[in-house]
Specification:
- With 275 residues, the chain is an all-alpha fold.
- The chain has one domain (3-273).
- The chain has eleven helices and no strands.
- It has helices at 3-18, 23-33, 40-58, 60-79, 91-120, 124-139, 156-168, 176-186, 191-219, 226-251, 259-273.
- Helix 5 runs parallel beside helix 7 (156-168).
- The relative contact order is 0.22.
């Protein structure tokens, strides 16, 4: 891949991964416009890994506290010093288990759709349709009132359902962040924790997709070239700043602001994809 194409796609990924406008949908559209011939799915997974690094940096404290709480609980549970009733009493521990609960359906759906993902990434019409759907999902959050967060009200069922939504977001055009945050808001999760859960839930999902792509590298199906590396780094830098921006937008209850954009881009994709 030419370096300039990798930089353009890396910037697009970084800007759109966290802003609820579907990074995959935008990559499909721009890869078609730029006539990128390399395996689109592998490049998409690679630049997603770049933006994942931004999540690690911004939520490093939360991740560290969750891992620490989970380790202490597991160690105590084995020795009989802790029991399951303590999960609802520790926010960091509860969040860790919620991430696990949400990751299960994501993994199952991701594996089921993995065989058709490459074909989905070649269809600009499909991306356009899903962008329209994303626009509707975002607009549905317009009148949701802010809720007071209670860790006990964030059930494992809610986490599991959000995980299903995230798994379906592998389809280009469906915004992962937009659909998962919107789902959490509709289920009564407050804005700040809806955003936090969405981004933390992305970590095992993107890491899993990256692991699946490793076998393609080893088999020679794809080549890790300079373009992919530069695109990934570019995605990380732009993703860092777009993540900070979206957190502020979600806290203000303005997620629906992105609905018109998704609808317009979806219509444009459908028009150009028809020729």
């Amino acid at each position: 891949m030419e370096i300039y194409k990798a930089v353009i796609l890396g910037i697009i990924q970084g800007l759109t991964e966290f802003l609820p406008v579907s990074s995959s949908g935008h990559l499909v559209i721009f890869q078609n416009f730029l006539k990128v011939q390399e395996p689109a799915l592998f490049f998409d997974i690679s630049v997603h890994f770049g933006t994942l690094c931004a999540v690690f940096i911004i939520f490093f404290k939360d991740i560290r506290l969750m891992i620490s709480a989970l380790y202490k609980f597991c160690a105590g549970f084995i020795t009989g010093k802790k029991n399951s009733s303590e999960i609802n009493e520790d926010k960091n521990l509860k969040f860790a288990f919620l991430i696990i609960a949400g990751s299960v359906p994501t993994a199952v759906i991701g594996l089921l759709l993995h065989t058709v993902s490459e074909r989905l990434f070649s269809s600009i019409v499909s991306a356009g349709c899903m962008l329209l759907l994303t626009g509707v999902i975002l607009w549905s959050t317009k009148n949701i009132k802010e809720n007071v967060f209670e860790i006990k009200r964030f059930s494992f069922f809610k986490a599991f359902f959000i995980g299903i939504v995230q798994g379906l977001a592998v389809i280009p055009g469906i915004s992962r962040s937009g659909s998962t945050i919107a789902s959490a808001l509709h289920m009564g999760i407050d804005r700040e924790n809806a955003a936090k859960f969405s981004f933390l839930l992305s970590i095992p999902a993107i890491l899993g997709a990256q692991i699946l792509s490793i076998k393609d590298i080893l088999s020679g199906a794809v080549v890790l070239d300079a373009g992919i590396i530069i695109g990934t780094v570019t995605a990380f830098i732009t993703g860092y700043f777009s993540l900070i921006l979206l957190i502020k937008i979600v806290k203000k209850g303005r997620l629906y602001f992105f609905a018109p954009y998704c609808i317009v881009i979806g219509i444009i994709a459908l028009v150009f994809g028809s020729f």
